[in-house]
Structure formats: C-alpha cells, structure tokens
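Q: Sequence in, structure out?
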Amino acid sequence: MVQFPSRLLFEVAADCPYVDRPFSLAPSEWGPALPPLSELDGTVPFAEVYVAWNEQGLYVAAQIPKDGPLVGNRRRPASGDGMQLWVDTRPEQSGYRATQYCHHFVILPRVPGSDEPLAWQQNIRRAWGRPPLCNPEEIKVEMQRAEGYYLLRVGLDTEVLNGFPLQADQQIGFNYLVHDTAAGRQLWSCPPQVPYDRNPPFWGRLRLVR
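A: Exactly. Output:
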C-alpha cells in the first residue's frame, strides 16, 4: 500500500529570526536550524539549513556533509552538488501557479574551471507572472570548505526579491532543495513526487520574527 506523504497533511511554517549582520556570524548563531521535516516521510536529512532576515533582505545558509570533491553542473544543477531556493514574498496572493512575487534561485558551490561559487535566478515554469531576473552578481554567496563538510551562505537583498516585506510578523513562502552527488536530495516542505519547482502551495512559510 502506498503511504500518503505526511508533509502534505499540514501547512509547514517555521520562524525566521531577525539577525543584524548574518554574514559576520556562524549560521548556528542565527537561531535553530529549520526543522528536518523530511523525517516525517521516512527520509533522514543530511544537511542543516538556517534562515535569517533583516531590512536588507533574506539570508540562507546550508551546512552540507562532504568528504569528496565538489561537483557543479550548470546545465543540470540537481545532478551535482548545491542548493536551490524558492521564495514567495506575497504568498497570500499566490494560487496554484507562481506569480511575479515568486522567485527561484540556484546556488552551486563550485563549477568546472572555477574555485568560486556560482548563483543565478531563473524563471519558474508555467508562472502567471514573473519577477525581473536579477543580475547574478547581485546574489551574495560565500562558500567555505572544512573537513567533512562545506558551508554555503546566500544573501538575497530586497532589490533581488520583488515585494520583499520589510517588517516583522509577516510571512513569506519558502522551500529549499539541497542536492548532493553522494547523499541525494533533501527537500524541506514537501516530498519530491509533487511539482514543487513551480507550484507555490507546496512551499512552506517563514514567519519573520524579531
């Protein structure tokens, strides 16, 4: 008998703490990592993901176990190492299809021919509306390699996030996908068999708190 995915039985929400200078702190100092919701569907998470916000934008960090080389694939990002983010700055206005407030970002820790991380924004398929695509250089990315893991930090400024709220007590739609050549894929708010890449209802919510 096929078991219905537990993550589809309730609305996923988590606190996103206010941090004045996220890039100057270890992500563990932002606040607790996002809850490992994949455990509800019997999948053991391998990465820890942290979020924070302030008036300048939204920040995401992922600590990902890794002993071997980092492999980045520009044409098929999910087949290599990295992280993808979906952000909806006005979730109360989004229906089953993405709007001009829905964003998709791809972050790779390394690509062939470079030792620097790479990030870009791309359009969401079948969207009702689309935000302006930002210049990749507007996405702040840092990658640190350590024994047994690597750390990705991403800063999405208000200029990058169309309609980003600037006050506490608001909510934004959010989902992440961490992909690893050895460990596989880790999704936050939904199981992989649903069209999470284009349908905002499958994304969770982040509560902006102070």
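The mean pLDDT is 91.
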